[in-house]
Amino acid sequence: MAPAAAPAADRRPRIALTAGEPAGIGPELVAHLAALDAGADLILVGSADLVAERAASIGLSVSLQADRPGVPLPPGTLGVADVALRVPSIAGRLDPRNGAYVLETLARAADGASDGRFDAIVTAPVHKGVVNDGGVPFTGHTEFFAARANRDVVMMLVAGSLRVALATTHLPLSAVPAAITRPSLANSLRILHGDLVARFGLAQPRIAVLGLNPHAGEGGHLGREEIDTIQPVIEELRGEGLDLAGPLPADTAFVPQQLARFDAVLAMYHDQGLPVLKHAGFGHAVNITLGLPYVRTSVDHGTALDLAGTGQADPGSLIAATTLAVQLARLGREGTSTDVD
């Protein structure tokens, strides 16, 4: 007879791991996690054969065991919810036929988190282009999980105490101004504020809101988005009790003395905020999708096809993403007010 499941408040968190693009470094990075004392049960949602094969190719020994919800995993073991590759994968060689495999791993992880079988999801990097080459429109993890959960979401990256969220994500720069509307910006700020409270335990988070244009528009001389859109939203949400500053010029908002005043920064577009964060924390930064009904974290890097199968890939960001996912899952379960860095 299987052991009785531990009460939800007492059992170890169950974290779903997806290994991303099978030809990339994701499978071997996941193999590194078997030795991580994460304080949680780590469950690979993907091909056990692929992870075992890639681990062996770089000299890693990995213990894999079929996942049995309610039965804790032995130390040093990854649970497996097995998903079969569509075709065999060779390190460094993309194959569009495996795009469907990648999407199935994400769907099964998302559905498991939605129904409570997993407490969080941690994702290794995917290759957007090869999924699209396989005939399925795909713009990224963030958009996939948002559509699956039917939720509006916000992308935020974390490196230590630096938190940078994005008002828009994977858009051409020419499309950004039209995408920043009063309703969309207000929604992003409410999601950011809400998850900083609920997931990070910050009772009254202080948020810096960047301008879109150089010098935050220079009083309208360099653009009117700050006057017509961003400032009115800030004033509206201040009336709801949110602690917001801005619109701030992006070129000075990341000066250390400025950052010390805030718990998070909302940038208007991808390459406005993320270069600063990745300079500060590349290799240990974590990507978080805010607004989902579950915790989802990811790495701060890509598939690194040139490193796949060489044993040179650094698992630091995936370890950081897993560690933070466990912390956030525990905070959500316990309802504590402890700040998470």
Oligomeric form: single chain
Shape-level CATH architecture of the largest domain = 3-Layer(aba) Sandwich
| CA-based shape | globular
CATH superfamily of the largest domain: Isopropylmalate Dehydrogenase
Report the biggest beta sheet as strand number plus sense, adding barrel if it closes.
Answer: 12 strands, mixed
Helix content: 25-40%
CATH topology of the largest domain: Isopropylmalate Dehydrogenase
Order of helices and strands: EHEHEEHEHHEEHHEHEHHEHEEH
What is the SS-derived class? alpha/beta
Tally the beta strands.
Answer: 12
Percent of residues in beta strands?
Answer: 15-25%
Integer count of domains: 2
Q: Cα-atom Rg, whole angstroms?
A: 20 Å
Q: How many helix segments?
A: 12
Query: What is the top-level CATH class of the largest domain?
Result: Alpha Beta
Q: Low-confidence parts, pLDDT < 50 over ≥5 residues?
A: 1-7
First-last Cα distance: 41 Å
| Spatial ordering of strands, largest sheet | 3-4-2-1-5-12-11-6-7-10-8-9
Indicate the mean pLDDT: 92
Report on the architecture of this protein.
It is a single chain. With 341 residues, this protein is of the alpha/beta class. The chain folds into two domains: 1-151 and 292-341, Isopropylmalate Dehydrogenase (3-Layer(aba) Sandwich), CATH 3.40.718.10; 156-283, Isopropylmalate Dehydrogenase. Helix content is 36%, strand content 18%. The chain has twelve helices and twelve strands. It has helices at 26-32, 48-57, 99-114, 128-133, 141-149, 176-179, 182-198, 225-238, 250-253, 256-259, 270-281, 316-334, and strands spanning 14-18, 41-46, 63-66, 77-82, 120-123, 154-159, 162-166, 206-210, 243-248, 264-267, 286-290, 295-298. Helix 8 links the parallel strand 8 (206-210) and strand 9 (243-248). Helix 3 (99-114) packs across helix 5 (141-149) and helix 7 (182-198) crosses helix 8. The relative contact order is 0.17.
